[in-house]
Amino acid sequence: MQELVEKVLINSQEIQKRINDLGKRISRDYKGKEVLLVCVLKGAFVFLADLIRAMDVPLKVDFIACSSYGSSTESSGVVRILKDLDYPVEGKHILLIEDIVDTGLTLNYILSLLKERRPKSLKVCAFLDKPERRVVPVKIDYLGFKIPNEFVVGYGLDYNGQFRNLPFIGVLKQEVYSQK
Ligand code: IMP
Asked: With CB atoms counted within 10 Å of each terminal CB, which end of the chain scores lower, N or C?
């Protein structure tokens, strides 16, 4: 699988270091509060798994799934809830965990949905940000890395459902996309 990778943008040591820093910062900010981490499936599950182990506050996790790219690399702009949360949100401190903010459409949609449920607070923690691609403005409270406008895979992010298990963030060789 690694032979299909053109280049590594962020290696696993850089990822772990950044996540430890984020975990400490978030723990400081939520000291004395219980937080519900809402993980946006599927891409954010690897990030969530590492982030919660870098956090030192009482926390719960829940999962929400939305339609995103399907099998192509371009956003359709259409957001649909495929799996809703198990826990109620009202009166809770919610931290939304996203893999990557690209156009911002998915995040914008989920944020407005959660706001309607009247959480006590609502913040966003995203692993990656591609600011050049933004269509709607969104505030990211905690960010892992800003990256250029390239389609990336690994560390939970997929192309066509695959490559989520790569331990780094990388860019695939052009031949992978032309094989389809
Ligand atoms: P947005 O709605 O355009 O911000 O897209 C957000 C979703 O698209 C992310 O949660 C990812 O699932 C997917 N996505 C955006 N860019 C990439 C990428 O470079 N690689 C893999 N998935 C991506």
From this structure: C
Domain ranges in the chain are: 18-148
Question: In CATH, which of 3.10.100.10, 3.40.50.2020, 3.30.420.40, 3.40.50.720 is domain 18-148?
Answer: 3.40.50.2020
How is residue 160 annotated by DSSP? Answer: T
Tokens found for residue 156: 């939970």
Q: Is 103 in the pocket of ligand 1 (CB under 6 A)?
A: yes
By most ligand atoms within 8 Å of CB, the mutation choice from 66, 96, 102, 157 for ligand 1 is 102
Whether 69 lines ligand 1, by a CB cut-off of 6 Å, is yes
Q: Which of 32, 29, 2, 27 is nearest to 165 (CA)?
A: 2
- State the Cα–Cα distance between residues 18 and 49, nearest whole angstrom: 14
Task: List the catalytic residue out of 62, 84, 86, 102.
Answer: 102
CB contact at 8 A, 134 and 128: no
| Of the candidates 108, 98, 95, 100, the residue with the CA atom closest to the CA atom of residue 146 | 100
Q: What's the pLDDT tens digit per position in 6-60?
A: 999 999 999 999 999 999 999 999 999 999 999 999 999 999 999 999 999 999 9
Closest Cα to atom 5 of ligand 1: 102
102 is catalytic: yes
